[in-house]
Amino acid sequence: MRFIQWRHADWNRAYYADVKSRVVRHGRPAEDHLLIAGITPYVAENARAAHAKFREVQDLNTNVFIPQVLSDQFGIDLSGHTGTDRVLAAIDRSLTPEKAWIIDNAIASFDDEDITLEDLTHYLGNNPMSQPAIVGDAADLADFIESNFREQAFDGLAICQPYWPGPAASFVDLVVPELQRRGVFRSEYTTSTLREHLGLPSAPNRLAERTAATETGGAA
């Protein structure tokens, strides 16, 4: 099992296919190596409330816009800009194609194309790039999970919480039933170990094998 970064669907599908092909080339079944993406869900009864909660959390960040910091992050010169400048006016996405997905994800999370450089600073401070925010109502998050799971962008998700308590309960109460309705998530556990829950075969007990070999050798 490998924990992976979530960027965007195209990148993750390509990464998934590459890793799975490498696993097969090395003699292992592709399904024995799971790719688990991390996300930070913000979910509420409706999308507007979810985006409002996301904005509220971002605004609690005390980081301030420092031109050099974002310049280093995106590989472009942002000197002369202030925190109130619009991101899309200050940053030409075509000049930083490898990092454009960060801007796209930030805009989607805020649900606002007019986010500022200060907003982007808060987004980068609150959302580690390995677990970006996914914001919306239950159907929005279920759509994201179902489509990317079925299109082989990941095998599963590590759900990270932006704060405690609240988000975990909201995800369980709102998103899980929708995933179960769609047949994407189990409705009960029929196995007893983590490996079995993940659909992985039982691993041999190497200690038991060594013990048995030692005992056999001693008896001989």
TrEMBL record:
Domain of life: Bacteria
Statement: the UniProt record of this protein carries the keyword NADP: no
GO molecular function, one term: oxidoreductase activity, acting on paired donors, with incorporation or reduction of molecular oxygen
Biased segments, Low complexity type: 210-220
This protein's record includes keyword Metal-binding: no
Location of region: Disordered: 200-220
InterPro entries on file: Diverse_substr_monoxygenases (IPR051260), Luciferase-like_sf (IPR036661)
Keywords tagged on the record: Flavoprotein, FMN, Monooxygenase, Oxidoreductase
Record protein name field: Luciferase-like monooxygenase
